[in-house]
Design brief:
7 strands; 7-stranded antiparallel beta sheet; 2 domains; about 375 residues; 12 helices; elongated
Length: about 375
């Protein structure tokens, strides 16, 4: 009702200001959460439908059973919630504040001497708690279920697992470089092997080439191997007999099959360190690792933005809140996509690629907040 909030304030003439603000916080939260849950349900449903219909043709071509398709969609629900959380917070907060303003209840609050930043402080706390929640939600539930979803999709569509071909990495402080055409993960077998060894001055020492190699629990046994070495300034070739000096574990050759998006935060951090220590490109993986944390902070960002623009709509509040939420989400994710791509290619540091959109939108939100109605 139009005078609902005004009645609450006028009915508390002898109560301390702190208690009055506490009542307003509870009132705002009660107004906010119904819209939030509706928005989450709506956006989750839309995301699931987009994922389903984008793969529908392939499901039909491979005659995937309906039960399997439903199971794949079910395991995509946690990821959909993770995607929908920030935009739902933005929509719900913007709509709630816009609705209060349209009913002149915000005017009543401001007339009582309460600034907008204090009135909406509870929304800020919700955004902060949501950021913490979404980080652990992603780490403990989204990543395991997404891994299952991807595996079910690969099996249903008869797609091969991540490739173990063209594996290249450095080890032993960069003095040994492995190049392998293919790594058989099940049988621990290498095909098409070249191993370059250098000294402390990065000068060539030897080159080993072998058709294949098999892991014998402690080192690699090479088949039909040859070694190239300089002797008396002449590059000579001779047969190479396997020894225990080439004992890099099979796990090192499996890296190319690892999808960092399917690793928990702790494991992803170790994976980045492993790539860096092995001399492999790690910019993209490190940017994705930092993105775990920056994405969680998105919930806090959207609350700042929603507070700054929530009271700007007095007509068509539902449509304006929806369009503004979608518009902000599109701009943010486009900026994030560009910065993450630049970070992956090495043009900017990975930490900048992950956090630049976050701090940019925080700055935009604070600037808009200065001009917000109060």
């Amino acid at each position: 009702m139009k005078d609902t909030l005004k009645a609450k304030l006028s009915g508390l003439p002898d109560i301390k200001s702190a208690l009055q603000i506490n009542v307003l916080d509870k009132y705002l939260i009660r107004q906010f959460f119904p819209f939030f849950f509706i928005a989450v349900s709506m956006f989750v449903f839309v995301l699931i439908m987009i994922d389903l219909f984008s793969n529908m043709a392939r499901f039909m071509n491979n005659e995937v059973p309906v039960l399997t398709v439903l199971k794949i969609s079910l395991f995509f629900v946690p990821k959909s919630i993770s995607y929908a959380f920030p935009i739902s917070l933005l929509f719900a907060a913007a709509y709630t504040l816009g609705d209060l303003y349209a009913r002149n209840e915000l005017t009543t609050v401001f007339s009582s001497g309460i600034p907008i930043w204090r009135f909406t402080f509870s929304l800020f706390i919700i955004g902060l708690l949501a950021s913490v929640f979404i980080f652990f939600f992603d780490d403990l539930l989204v990543i395991p279920t997404l891994k299952v979803k991807n595996e079910l999709s690969r099996r249903a569509l008869n797609q091969p697992a991540s490739s173990n071909s063209d594996v290249v990495f450095k080890t032993r402080n960069g003095r040994l470089i492995y190049s392998v055409d293919y790594f058989d993960n099940e049988n621990f077998k290498l095909d098409g092997i070249s191993i370059i060894e250098t000294n402390e001055n990065n000068e060539f020492v030897s080159l080993i080439r072998a058709r294949s190699a098999v892991w014998n629990e402690s080192f690699w046994e090479f088949q039909n191997a040859s070694i190239y070495q300089y002797e008396d300034s002449i590059l000579r070739i001779r047969r190479f007999i396997s020894d225990a000096s080439y004992n890099e574990p099979p796990e090192m050759f499996r890296r190319s099959a690892v999808n960092i998006d399917e690793l928990r935060a702790k494991d992803a951090g170790l994976f980045v360190v492993d790539l860096r220590d092995s001399g492999l490109p790690y910019n993209r993986a490190q940017a994705n690792y930092y993105h775990r944390y920056s994405f969680a902070a998105t919930s806090l960002i959207v609350m700042i933005l929603s507070i700054s623009m929530g009271g700007r709509f007095r007509k068509n509040i539902l449509l304006m809140s929806l369009f503004s939420s979608l518009g902000v989400a599109v701009v943010f994710y486009v900026m994030e996509m560009i910065s993450m791509t630049l970070a992956g290619l090495g043009y900017i540091p990975p930490i900048v690629g992950a956090w630049f959109p976050v701090f940019s939108f925080i700055a935009i939100g604070l600037l808009l907040l200065q001009g917000a109605k109060t």
